[in-house]
Amino acid sequence: MKKIVLKKVSTLFILCSFAISASYGNTVQNISKQNKNIEAYIKVWGLVKYRSPLSIAGKFDVDKVFLENIEDVKDANFEELNLLLLDMTNNAGVSVNSRNASKSCTNCLTKNMDDKWIGNKLFSKETRLKLKGLYHNINLSESHHYINKVHYETEILNEPQYKDYVAFKDETMNLLALAKSWSAIEYLYPYKYQMDKNNHQILSEMIPVFRAVKSRASYEKAVLALEANINDTHAAGFLDQLKSKAEIFKINLYPPFDYKCLEKGIVVEEFLNDSLECASTLKKGDVIFAINNVKIKNWFSKKMELLPASNMAVKYRLLSMDWRGNVFAFYDVNDDTLDVKVLRGNQRLSLKLNMLKLTNKNSLTIINKYIKKRVKEDEQVKPYENLGDDVAIIRGGYFSSEHLPKNEKEETKFSEELKSKKAIIFDMRKYPNGGLFYYFIPMALGKKSFEFAKYYRANLEDPGSFSLVPGLELYLSNDLKTDDNPYKGKIVILTNENTQSKGEWYTMMLRQLSKNTTVIGSQTAGTDGDLKLLNIPGGYQFIFTGNGIFYPDGRETQRIGIVPDIYFNPSISTIANDSDAHLQRALEFLKHGK
Q1: 3 within domain boundaries
Q2: Beta strands 384-388 and 347-354: pairing type?
């Protein structure tokens, strides 16, 4: 009798398990179907936003339409989904028969143009026909509601901020943030074709992430993950907007030293104070190559996931301690004491690293005091300095308006001073003063305005493509005076991973200003071109590079950066001391010619 009861119980358990499993399977299947519908809808919505007649004219409220339709989209069947899509395109003024003939653009970048996604099986034949016509429709109005006419303007037009959205629990609003950001990448990001992942793959992966958002921290993390996917150093600016940084990165502990990250490991540069140095078994110049038995490559790989960057050089830069005190190489650390393996000269040591608790007021005081000291030291750096032997250095990132010539007399004196030097070193390792290089430097060295790059902006006629911007005033000031006695001395430019955007732009200029120019350094930030700011729900701004910059011969700068003539990175032994090894290398080149 007992055996029969056990058999019945067992059968009941199996039936219940099967029912639960089937229910779970149906739920997963339903969520997957919803996500595919959402993905298809976002793609069509973005196309309508940037290419439909009424949206271009500002007469179609795309945000309102998105919020009204997204819930119906989720569980729509084939017919219902296509009715929604056709209704949206019709209301936006799209007609199959109103397609404009494509204009030929001989100076346009079209690498980003790809309409293969319109062949999605979720779209009916009628929907595909409309989408094809819309994708190839040309805007003849000479304006666009969402694309700036002035190429260098930073904030994208007519995008509401939704500052009152503070709960971050509304899935429709969170998906709107994704739709707006993803569509901007699709139609306004010139380097989309250079991303590691296809933009459509990114959308598919990010939909469940944004649907899972339930708090400010998870919302910020989702946007940050999307920023990281576009492989653009400008996108790292979103880190400065984070209000939940400690929660996202789980920053509870802090290293007792300043440090720099390299491929080989974490180099200890300087302890935060003498007491911490005396108490530590580590020393300046030590290289940490493993933490808690995790190889540094794997340790870095995990920490890099949420750090937007064009290349690995910037990834290491972001992991290093910066002037704000960020220590991303040590986020999500839970142990007060870490087991570290260290390279000290030729020795390999196993040591203990005692971390500082951020809950400790004394630790916070030490950290803040050190950061203030670093900022103060930076403020003492001279923007211009004579180095002896008729060599001068101009540190572009340390010039302010007060350092620039105020009148014609001072301009003449500035020019005479520079031209008297047999060599000028331009330090571009910090974001430079634009006015200095747009006018004063070429003027002082006797150079007229010239084109040293190819500059592309978002094409209003054909969104998704980018058109060449003509005009010398784009490159240098039209007010530059002709000089029959241009500078004939040597020019050396110092670059590294901090040479970014405007720093890369004016390095391109200086390099072509004279044939007697040499770039000494390492890979730069690889993010040349004016950045764009897109307002998204919650008062945030999605950041990306908005203009395409290429060398005159068409070579790319994005992700690659400015390739130096002489590759140089300070050795590990020089990183921990106070000397500027990079500058010393430049002086050695000027002295010996190699």
Answers
A1: no
A2: unpaired
Could you tell me if 212 and 132 lie in one domain?
Answer: yes
Contact 247/235 with Cβ under 8 angstroms? Answer: no
Position 238 in a domain: no
pTM check: above 0.85 = yes
How many separate helices (H) and strands (E) can be counted in the chain? 19, 20
Determine whether 581 is exposed, middle or buried from the number of CB atoms within 10 Å of its CB (0-12, 13-18, 19+).
middle
Copy the structure tokens of residue 386: 């004579």
Give the pair of three-digit tokens for residue 177.
């943030």
Cα 201 → chain centroid: 19
Structural domain range at position 533: 381-592
Pairing verdict, β 423-427 and 490-495: parallel
Same domain for 347 and 218: no
Contact criterion met (CB below 8 Å) for 397 and 500: no
273-331, pLDDT tens digit by residue? Answer: 999 999 999 999 999 999 999 999 999 999 999 999 999 999 999 999 999 999 999 99
Are 155 and 218 in the same domain? Answer: yes
Q: Which amino acid is at 363?
A: S
Strands (E), 480-582: 490-495, 517-521, 531-536, 540-545, 548-550, 566-567
Cβ proximity of 454 and 554 under 8 Å: yes
Q: Determine the Cα–Cα distance for residues 189 and 198; give it in Å rounded to an integer.
A: 13
Pairing of β 540-545 and β 531-536: antiparallel
What are the residues facing 556 on neighbouring strands? Answer: 550
Compute CA distances 46 → 39, 65, 184, 356, whole Å. Answer: 11, 12, 8, 47
Q: Which helix (H) or strand (E) holds 253?
A: strand 253-254
3-state SS, residue 25: helix
Distance, in Å, from the CA atom of 245 to the CA atom of 232, rounded to the nearest integer, reads 20
387 and 368 within one domain: no
Residue 565: closest CA among 527, 525, 512 = 512
- DSSP-derived secondary structure for 183-197: HHHHHH-TTGGGSSS
The SS3 assignment for 260 reads strand
Whether residues 412 and 472 share a domain: the answer is yes
Structure confidence by residue, pLDDT tens digits, 366-387: 999 999 999 999 999 999 999 9
How far is the C-alpha of 401 from the C-alpha of 436, rounded, in Å? 9
The DSSP bridge partners found for residue 552 are: none
Please calculate the CA angle 56-62-66 and round it to the nearest 5 degrees: 155
Q: How far apart, in Å, are the Cα atoms of 472 and each of 314, 475, 484?
A: 31, 5, 20
130 by DSSP, 3-state: which? helix
If one counts the domains in the chain, the total is 3
Token look-up 């067992």 returns 10
In angstroms, the CA 394 to CA 384 distance is: 5
**pLDDT confidence tier of residue 577, bands split at 50, 70 and 90:** confident
* DSSP label at residue 577: S
Looking at the fold, whether 496 and 548 belong to one and the same domain comes out as yes
